[in-house]
Amino acid sequence: MSSGRVFVTGGASGLGRAIAERFARAGARVCVGDVDEEAGNEVAARLGGGAFFLRCDVTKDEDFEHARDELEARWGGVDVVVNNAGVAQAGPIDAVPMDDWKWIVDINLLGVVRGCRTFTPVFKRQRSGHLVNVASMAGLLDVPFMSSYNATKAAVVSLSETLQNELEEEGIRVSVVCPSFFKTNIAASMRATDPGLRAATERFLSRSPLTAEDVANDVYEAVEHGRFYVLSHKDGRAAWMLKRLLPRRMYAAVLRKQTRAMRRAAGAG
Asked: What is the pLDDT of residues 141-159, one digit of tens each?
């Protein structure tokens, strides 16, 4: 990746920042896209190597179009687009407001769609490129009280699987990233109808043995070696296997037991 050109949305913090840092360490030129201009500029300055910041609100088509035009003007194209920006929401289906559904769909799903739609024509002209779409284990599993989050992440998985089939003959690679809990700041922007759900999320994030840097390294390796699924967590891979192999009733019973334990842990905190 010494000559790579990489654009990362949500690159000013959390996993996005870690991904930007990992590619920069490998010698790539990196553009940090984010809505937080101060943090984004700080990250770009620390990266060095000609890294720079662009404001990119993933709910706005024009921000992606501006990023595309700027990257083509500065770099003559782009090699890796990481659609990372995302938010979280938790609550029972009958308690989550429709405004929260619209908010999370616009960012988690349509933000990825916008990134893919905007940069695919660039990749087609180049006959090369790599889309990295950050989903979640929530997109492969189905934890209760996370319906809006699960639905958007499952849609990102399906979108990525579709694009892998659609774009391979164009010389375009796709990866979908499905981490479980890891130390990150996503809880800061989380919307939750129940304070216990927020507390449980923060507890599981803080207890994870994996960091954003661990997941970012897996993302880098996936791009280097052309891997599609990026599943960093051993327990997440095991849970996905159980879902695919167990009868639905048995799998659902295991999931309900884990959810009750999660809520008890939140109450204890």
From this structure: 888 888 999 999 999 999 9
Count of domains observed in the chain? 1
* Phi–psi pair at 60, nearest 5 degrees: -120, 120
CB proximity list for 136: less than 8 A, separation 6 or greater: 86, 149, 153, 178, 179, 180
Whether pLDDT at 132 is above 90: yes
Q: Does the annotation count 149 as an active-site position? A: yes
Q: How many CB atoms lie within 10 A of CB 221?
A: 13
Read off the CATH number of the domain in which 150 is found.
3.40.50.720
Q: From CA 144, how far away is CA 260, in angstroms rounded?
A: 10
Residue range(s) defining the domain that contains residue 100:
5-268
- pLDDT score for 184: 58
Res 176: pLDDT: 98
Among 149, 220, 229, 251, which one carries the catalytic annotation? 149
Residue 30: strand pairing partners: 6
239 vs 220: CA distance, rounded Å: 24
- Report DSSP state, residue 185: S
Alpha helices in 105-247 (DSSP H): 110-126, 147-167, 195-207, 212-225, 234-245
Nearest to 132 by CA among 117, 118, 116: 116
